[in-house]
Amino acid sequence: MSSRGGSRVAGSDGRDYQHRERVADHYVISATNKWRLRCVLYLHFSLLVMMLLRLSTSIFVGVGVRPPRLLQRMQFPRAQVWEYYWLLSVLPAVVGFLALRRSKPIMIQQYFLGTLIFGVLPALYGIFDQCDDMILYWRTKEATVKFRGFPMVVLWNMFLAVILQVHGFGLGFAWALWTAWTTRGSKKSR
Q1: Which pLDDT value is given to residue 189?
Q2: CA 18/CA 107 separation, integer angstroms
Q3: Structural domain tally of the chain?
Q4: Residue 178's domain spans which residues?
């Protein structure tokens, strides 16, 4: 509120703010980490779109439909098993978005566990699956599979590194939200 006489109430030197109410810490943590997790989820969805584009040719063939000419001309390398499993990480991402709207700790737990199972584990499997090819490329500078002249093993590992970072940040923000939402209303002992 503003006062009529100026910026301060008469008789106050401005040091009387100690008695005023403050926003509880868990609300501040919740608001900050909700925004951060929302940004991470948008990054996750953009990575999912990239992966769907990359796997679209094999998905069309698997369904029995001829892929469009544009996808046929791109000549994507053969899809790997971990890539299909990683696509399932869209499910916990949707649960994460719903958890942000409702501020429900059980939903953020489901996002956390689903991201570990469908996001982090397939990415780690992909790194370990590519490990031998990456070491071979590191030593010889020759790749067995290339995409547009680039070694596919390097592209896969770069993508996997980005995936792990996105999931790591998402898990960290989800943990902060879960602790803020579960400690809500509990009294601090002094």
Answers
A1: 45
A2: 37
A3: 1
A4: 24-182
